[in-house]
Amino acid sequence: MDAFTHLGGEVREALSERGFSTPTEPQRKAIPPIAAGRNALVLAPTGTGKTETAMLPVLDAIHAARDAPGDPPREGISALYVTPLRALNRDMMDRLEWWGDRLGIEVAVRHGDTTRYERSKQADDPPDVLITTPETLQAILTGSKMRAALEDVTHVVIDEVHELASAKRGAQLTVGLERLRRVSGPFQRIGLSATVGSPEEVGRFLVGCGRRDPDRTGDRAFETVEVAAGTRTDVRVLDPAITDRDSRLAGELATDETTASHVRTIREIVADHESTLIFVNTRQTAEALGSRFKALAEDDPADEAVTIEVHHGSLSTEVRVDVEDRFKAGEVDGLVCTSSMELGIDVGRVDHVVQYGSPREVARLLQRVGRAGHRRDLVSEGTVVTGGGDDTLEAMAIARRAGEGLVEPASIHHGSLDTVANQVVGVVMDEGEVHAREAYETVTNAYPFRDLSEPAFQEVVRELDGNRLLWLDEESDTLEKSGGTWQYFYANLSMIPDESTYEVYDMSSRRGIGTLDERFVVNFAGPGETFVQRGEMWRITAVDEEEERVEVTPIADPAGEVPSWVGQEIPVPRPVAEEVGRIRGEVASALAAGSTPAAVACDLADRYPADERTVREAIGPIADHVDAGHPVPTDERVTIEGSARTVAVNATFGHEVNETLARLLAALVGQRAGSSVGMDVDPYRVEFEVPGGVGPGAFREVLETTDPEGLEAYLEIAVKNSDALKFTLAQVAAKFGSIKRYREGRGKFGGDRLLAALEGTPVYEEALREVFHVDLAVAETAGILEGIRSGTIALETARERTPLGTAGRSAGTEFLVPENADADVIETVRERIRNDRVRLFCLHCRDWERTTKVRRVDDRPECPECGSTRIASLNPWDEETVAAVRATEKDDEQERRTERAHRAASLVQTHGKRAVIAMAARGVGPHNAARIINRLREDEDEFYRDVLRQEREYARTQSFWD
């Protein structure tokens, strides 16, 4: 039966006016159950009409209820439409406003930027449909007028539910919906999502579990409607060949030939299509790729006919909206974008998608390529442009898995205690006074908290009481508002951690162009520095710390830094990495049996969506590896190799398992060696920087002897003093209101002291749980260790560093500063370091210290108090190392800091100011400084080139260093 017949006459007439003659597949399948009032999870690619699928039956129900005889008219809000992004709010308003006007249904939008006047108007005269965000729902649940308006809610639509399911803000939303249920009673829940590998899990996330209804009946029942995305996609993987033009372009674009070939190829794809989205994995790459397109257009006037712009979340709203509108109008041919454009923002018809570099996940590829060609149920076409080696093999595995619908399951954020704390305060804000049992049941009716124990809940409540965020009356078991409840609640509407951002303000045009992360500003930004944003080059003229503003002017300079955003590495799942391992094994076996690389590439090209040349380039390192006689690391073989002070463990198990192995090995090998071990993780190998005398044998011994059942205990010890745990602990403590409590009257409260103060509390338990949940895969890694013990996973040691062990992920997509820095760049580096500040500290008397600019340091520093030349050069803010050196009794962390200070002092004693300069560079510690100095460069420019190379290496690996 035609799905539209389930809708009323007014809506069907409006459909005809709007040009909806035939329902799309999601509409055919989902409108009947939604129109019948049942909960539904609709899984389908973007662009297949999911919004109308959900909202046409909802609008029809609102329209019908208004005309129903005998029923009093509803005066409150009938439907909530919740989206994860404000940009989606704006987009949904544009799309639903016409339907509202046609049917006489008022539609409004509300989020953090809604004016006070508009909020007051909505409270006095509520709309029928309110479009909002998870955070704003938290706020309107507590206002007396809006809370009364919410009593009439009968429908809630959650858009992009997969985006929320794996995040704490999604867990917060599920409890918010249970709080809403206490106000309105049961309501219909409709979830709209991209294809996921665990629809049942996402459905339960949507409707809640209900502790009194664990069997999912009544209003907890739901139907899943799924439109398979894999059968509707046509994806090709391409590693472009380098042409003569690319050799010339490399110089013009200030990059290498490989990157030039990528830029040229993508530009040609854009020219061959009407409207192309170009997805990249990081904002850094978006900015740098955009700058290369601009340079390409300037190099060849014929290329100016193709317009390519940049779009990502750190650009200002004005810039983003302008680019979206121009792209939709056809004035922009290609849009370089990040994950925000995966979601349903309407940018008109897209007929092709380029993914630059491996998309890392099947779900991400389907979501991105799914943006193309879905008007009138067309097949979505996409091209993955790769940089060879692991990048290509990974993209091939993902494209094959996408075609077969092998999508990763949603990683729902279960049991986050800081979310519980936040929502218990929310329940108290809602009701003023509530029995603890009712608050507990409200929280545990939400699916992510169904297993929360009463003792754990009680611990959270006592922590909140101790932090004065609410009062616990232990005699009556009631929770009441305290003096701190209101302030805490409205300061913590979001579960997204607070991180400062700086506005980037163009002094020439007198307008904001975007934002920069605080860490980038602190570490990199200063007057005279250059960087890339919005695909253009900018020079900083001033940094206003109080206003959190960076003032810039535009320049033409290809050598700028790319702004650094934290936490953007998309983890490669284990099944994808293991398939890359299986491909390696197949190639190695075929080559060992006498087959040629060309024949092997031909066979793989028949089974994977890539041409023979692309596959042949990808398997080149495997062929080199086999020719050298090394054991090939596969999904069933781990290999260890080393040289000098580097050891690599080659393991094709994906980011999370490899991160877990890395932390285990770094902790246990470092403990046995009595020195810290640095680590760099990717999905196919872990590289360690080790102290002298430590080789592959130490790592093999740990892998062979570690008891899998004790893995979690080992890891807790390993992460206990890590920066990752301290950083997470500070964020979690803020959500519990604990940081304010511990800082009162104590001034600065560092990570070590916070760790000591909170250990054993729910705050510490939650921080530890989050580190384990986000970064680690304990159970899977225990299985790997068990496999090594049983022999199902081979463990072999290579004689030397190998082609696969040193390959790493292709750097072609990173777009940092040019490799061959010119004289201007070297001069900029020299001047920047000379004006950086360092802390000089005497290790002999331990009394004298001085913070000064590098250029003011003597050629041979010595202590003016005792005359010693044992002067350590430290970061200017490094209070903890100074305290560690002065301490009479030291813990392990203080011992490490003291040892590092002595290494720094030895360098300064031997090499003087040159050592101070090297260690003042970004990410250059005593070990790397010694390596730079020992190259004995006579030319000072070459010395600074070495410093710059090390800074680049640090920028590339920064997020992996513990």
Topology:
Blueprint: H1 9-18, H2 25-35, E1 40-43, H3 50-67, E2 79-82, H4 86-103, E3 107-109, H5 116-124, E4 129-132, H6 134-140, H7 144-149, E5 155-158, H8 161-165, H9 168-184, E6 188-193, H10 199-207, E7 223-226, E8 233-238, H11 244-252, H12 257-271, E9 276-279, H13 283-299, E10 308-311, H14 317-328, E11 334-337, E12 352-356, H15 362-369, E13 380-385, H16 389-403, H17 417-431, E14 433-435, H18 436-444, H19 454-466, E15 470-473, E16 478-481, H20 485-491, E17 501-506, E18 511-517, H21 518-523, E19 530-533, E20 536-544, E21 549-555, H22 574-592, H23 597-607, H24 612-618, H25 620-627, E22 637-643, E23 646-650, H26 654-673, E24 678-682, E25 685-689, H27 696-705, H28 711-720, H29 723-736, H30 738-743, H31 751-758, H32 762-775, H33 778-790, E26 794-797, H34 823-835, E27 837-842, E28 849-853, E29 871-874, H35 879-886, H36 892-911, H37 913-920, H38 926-933, H39 940-957
Parallel strand pairs: 1-6, 1-7, 2-4, 2-5, 3-4, 5-6, 8-13, 9-11, 9-12, 10-11, 12-13, 17-21, 22-26
Antiparallel strand pairs: 14-16, 15-16, 17-18, 19-20, 20-21, 22-23, 23-25, 24-25, 27-28, 27-29
Helix pairs in contact: 2-3, 3-4, 6-9, 9-17, 11-12, 15-16, 16-22, 16-24, 17-18, 17-19, 17-20, 17-29, 22-26, 23-24, 26-28, 29-31, 29-32, 34-39, 35-36, 36-37, 36-38, 37-38, 38-39
